[in-house]
Amino acid sequence: MSVVPAGVHTAQPVQFPPHANVNVSVGGPPGVAPVPDSYFTESKKGEVNELRNLLRNFATERDPKRKRDIIKKVIAYMTLGIDVSRLFTEMMLAIETRDLVIKKMVYLYLCNYAYSHPELAQMCTNTLQKDCGNDDPMVRGLALRSLCSLNLPQMVEYISEPLRKALSDHHAYVRKTGVMGILKLYHLDKESFEQCGFVDILYDMLRDVDSSVVANAIMVLNEVMSKTENGGMAINRAIMLHLLNRIHEFSEFDLVQVLELVPRYIPANADEGFQIMNLLDPVLRTSSCAAVLATVRAFLSMADQIAGSTEDCTEMKQQVVSRIKAPLITLVASGSSEVQYVLLKQIESLVELCPGSFDDEFRQFYIRYHEPTHVKFLKIEILPLLANLDNAPDIVNELGEMVFDQNTRISRLAVRSMAKIACRGNGGPGCAESIAQRMVELLDSNVEHVQSEAATALTLMLRKHADLKPVASMSLVRTLKYVQEPIGKASIIYLLGECGDLIHEAPYALEKLIDNYDTIKDVAVKHQLLNACLKLFFLRPPEMQRMLGRLLHKATDDVSSQDLHDRALLYYRLLRSGADPKTILAPIVQTNHNLGERVFTEDDDAQLRAELMEEFNTLATIYGKASVNFIRPEFQVVYKKMPAEHPLHEGGDTFGAGHVPVAPQSMPQPVVASREPAVAPVPETSAPDGFVADLLGFGAPSVPPVQASPPTAFSLASGVTMTGDEYQSKWAGISDADAIVSAVSLSSVPATTGEVESKLAGYSVVTMASGELPTEFKFFLYAKEAITGNMFLIQSNIGKAGEALMIITVKVSSEAGSANQQQQVDHLIQEIQKALG
Amino acid sequence: MISMIMILNQKGDVMISRQYRDDVSRAEADAFRLQVIATKNTGTESPVKRIENCSFLYTRHLNMFFVAVTRSNVNPALVFEYLYQFIRILKGYLGDDFDENAMRNNMTLIYELFDETMDFGYPQNCAVDVLKLYINLGDVKPKDEPAPSQLTSQITGAIDWRREGIRHKRNEVYIDVWESVNLLLSSTGVVLRNEVTGAVQMNTKLTGMPECKFGLNDKLVIEKEGQRKPGVEIDNCTFHRCVRLGKFDADRTITFIPPDGEFELMRYRVNDNINLPFRFIPAVQEEQGNTKVTINLKIIANFSDQLFATNVVIKIPVPKNTSKAKIKHNFGRAKYEPEQQAIVWRGKRFPGKSECHIQADVDLMPTTRPKPWSRPPISAEFQVPMFTSSGVHVRFLRVYDKSGYHTNRWVRYITKAGSYQIRI
């Protein structure tokens, strides 16, 4: 018997009736008459047997399309959760094929069932190994991937050799598959992984020409090393700068891997930190929100590292956040709801990190009618954080619109958010009163949950601002009658107790409740009733005395809550002891009045926030919990910044770290005035948004990090001459966009142009023309590099007032292309620095 | 890293799944089905769900759930980017609105894609065009089979979005500038929020490896060039990865080697000086006794009379207990649609500089317990071809190629309503 649909031998793709046998093993829906087990097993056997027959014909089948269909059917059954592992032998026979599609499917089958048939799987290693040496790189890669995915410990000895070969394959596809293979080997057998010494090879592969191989190597190293003290790949300056210099080569996903290394890196000095930020700045313009968020994290971490003091740090973070604000808002505005959700969560933590930074964009956080509710919730929660003197009325109005939303959770949140604005007290004078006024109006609204929330909100606000009492007390007695929700009711009773001195009829409002004490179900209400009555007793003893007596009597008889019972007893005994009223009121009233400037304890979570910032842009920010709370120990990763000591003085490193232009040995002090944003006027090449100018202070990326290429010698040729016309045509021939701008600080402002000229001439920098303007000196200079023959055309000016700073604009005219221009210019700048400094 | 990707249907059955790590099992799929899909709260709950120590990040396509399962502290943005990209890839293979059946019929193709786009839980090469070159099990037929050596260099090459040796008989570029206007007006007529998000979509059919330079009437560029013409202040923009970002940062020129076929070149956002295509003047009165509501609405088209808006749909909400509505209007068709709880006013063509008016008297059924009406906003949908709210227009697109061929360019502008809401 067979349940196989008709049309097996046609060229049509196999059609499955919807839900056919999807969950055969799970059992049928309730209500279906029980079918004997044998029926199912037999029918399954039937299907599988049918397949087996088909597979037997496989070898003789000529038509490749039919061949594919047979294998496809097996895979389809596998997907449905039917165990087709009994066909293992037959499938193994099909592995010898030249058809890549069939090969892929058989490999998939193999990876799925190898674990249950280890001996049989071992038989096919031969084929796999052979395929690893195939001419087609696709086949090599595929075979290698499958070989490593078999997940059989006994296979390790067969894996390591092909793996090693793959790592030096001439084709990048094979290499990157090999790199991932190492990781699989690591999980399979850590010992042989150690023996093979793959870690060193992986570090070498960070220099691979292909960016995807590099990215894979980073991922693998990070995971393999995650349990070491470094918490991932060891980073040093050379590696970091090498990767950052190639940042534009990486694809969107790979880019994120590189960016995620940056927060763990400690820059050698402040300048380097600024350069890294400069280098990463363009990434903020990509449309990949993963890359943008990773950059944000990198920026924040750099700010942490660079800043000397905590004030510096806060200020710098403020600058960073204002730089990244626009890109984040754009992504939120155009992203789909899931991305919006993720971004809003990150923005929320940024707002808490730098209060005020997103204030002016508060309209972006107004909810839209058709948004999914999880996005709406987040927006409503963010809005109160953005309130300041100017926008608080607008935000409160907007929240007011949401109060009567059909979704009760939204309307509750809206009320809570309004209360938050009042409690945070950043809405300016009068804001809290107007919010309290609104709350009182809401108490009279006809919607139950809104009344309840408003009452609760009022209690919070009253604890913070005791002067709101007159506003809050207006309609309490009336509202007490129709608020039903326990929390709301408890809040109203609390308010009555607090405002007892203003509300004359308060005792009588409570009297009814005391009389109906037995009908009150909720313990919180009873608690508040007890507290409120006690407070009122001290305000108006004659009216309250008997009522309190009755209440205490009932409460001490109440067995529904131990806490309530004990508390009532305590009050009773205290009162009877004739103690000082202050002692008696202490346990209820003490915490209520002195809040003033302090925040509620639950809002004061600086430590948690700091922990979360460490894990910015991970699930931790989404859940609002540190990762230790939801990640199993074996998946925990230590977050460690490195390197602690900078190998700055080790020359001759393979990466050329010794020749970094900013390395301290070549520049006694950081010459670029990075701390004084004002002194760096940025000529035409500056980025349009003020970021570079105000944060970094040295204009366009003038002093980039090292080039990965081997160090180049640099010397200026002497005795070079050039005519004025030549100079002009060359200058005009190079676009302004290619010009490189830098600054050199001088010991003092020179008296004449000649002074500068003579100094420069000593270093083979020739003056074409110079002049003195009322405010500045201007120089037109040129120089020739001795080896490459590059001509440098330089225009520079020195301002007479203020800082002694020489602004230099360099254009390079070269025959050899622009490979090392940046580096050469850096050397040139150093020469000039030497001459004048 | 991601431990498993699974695709579930509406009932929560796993249609297809690929397990990359053995730290999760099908039991997790069950947990997800019971705790997320079965509760039917997927719009309300966050798209990131933690069940015990396992995190599920999911998104939807039609009624299918694409779920990534992980046990480690992943970068959520990255995971969502991957899921979106995977859906995009499937769309490329199976058509824009592929459904469950299409998925079942192409199971092996999907397995292949799973294997190629992710290895051991880390995203690998995800560029659709490149994948299409060497994975073509499904209906996609390779247009022209490239030589294998060239093909494989594409898989890992630096310009992975375009392959070499593309030929077209006619070299053409289509540029679509899509803008969506978002507006939120308070009931007193105050603009609460107003912005335009735009996208420049391109369809390139160009031979070789052409270098393109693209220019909008960006205010900063125009000012730099010293022209007198007014420019648009673009608040922020993001680009397709083919655009040279360094160049843009240096002098704000947009240069790139485009992918072949359709892609989104850039997105931008404009906040100031927005030309609203429609002005709404509503007046809604609830009568005493809660039995009647009178609605008056005037709409003025603000764009040139040479143009017209199409597919205009205006939804005017009415209370739940509406029994009937008497509607008078001078444009399109309007009727009360109980399932939408709104009067829906539709019109195919709305000429520019014109004005129209609707008046509705709504009778309410008396209810035992009067509930206040939440007064949802009036919302509008429309499209205005050849009009941009922000004023953005394409100034030039230059194509440079070695062979120096001639390129035909077509530019189209469409403004549509994003979320266009007027509170009443």
UniProtKB/TrEMBL annotation, chain A:
Q: Does the keyword Protein transport apply?
A: yes
Q: List keywords of the entry alphabetically.
A: Membrane, Protein transport, Transport
Q: Which domain of life is it from?
A: Eukaryota
Chief location of this protein? membrane
Residue stretches making up the Clathrin/coatomer adaptor adaptin-like N-terminal domain: 45-577
Give Gene Ontology CC terms: clathrin adaptor complex; endomembrane system
Question: Protein transport: present as a keyword of the record?
Answer: yes
Domain (Beta-adaptin appendage C-terminal subdomain) spans: 720-817
| Short name of one Pfam family | B2-adapt-app_C
Subcellular location(s) of the protein: Endomembrane system
Gene Ontology terms: biological process: intracellular protein transport; vesicle-mediated transport
Q: Which family does it belong to?
A: Belongs to the adaptor complexes large subunit family.
Q: What is this protein called?
A: AP complex subunit beta
Q: Which organism is it from?
A: Cylindrotheca closterium
TrEMBL record, chain B:
Statement: the UniProt record of this protein carries the keyword Cytoplasm: no
User: Main subcellular localization, coarse class?
Assistant: membrane
* Its membrane topology: Peripheral membrane protein
Q: Where in the cell is it found?
A: Cell membrane; Membrane, Coated pit
Q: Which residues form the MHD domain?
A: 170-423
Presence of the UniProt keyword Disulfide bond in the record: no
Q: What is this protein called?
A: MHD domain-containing protein
Recorded source organism is Cylindrotheca closterium
